[in-house]
Specification:
This protein is an all-alpha fold. About 25% of the residues lie in helices and about 0% in strands.
C-alpha cells in the first residue's frame, strides 16, 4: 500500500495530486479516518508520537499547491 498525507481539511481544495492518487490507488488514511489538520496533532499527542508537536506543513513548502500551469519553484508562496 502507498499512502500520503491528505486529510479531511483538504476537502474541496484543488489538488492535482489527489486526482493522481485516486488513479493509482494511493490511499489517504488521515482523510479516510476523517481527521482534520487541527485534530491530527492532538491525536498524535494522545498516541505519544514524537511528531505531535511538529508543524503541520513539515516539508510541504516543497510541494505546495501552485496555480494551474505555474511552474513555480521551491519556497515560492
Amino acid at each position: 500500500m502507498i499512502a500520503y498525507g491528505e486529510n479531511a481539511s483538504d476537502n474541496g481544495d484543488f489538488r492535482p495530486g489527489a486526482q493522481a492518487a485516486a488513479e493509482f490507488q494511493v490511499r489517504a488514511p488521515l482523510k479516510e479516518a476523517g481527521l482534520t489538520k487541527a485534530e491530527i496533532p492532538a491525536f498524535s499527542a494522545q498516541l505519544g508520537l514524537p511528531t505531535a508537536d511538529k508543524p503541520a506543513n513539515g516539508l510541504s513548502q516543497f510541494a505546495h499547491p501552485m496555480a494551474n500551469g505555474d511552474p513555480g519553484k521551491a519556497g515560492d508562496d
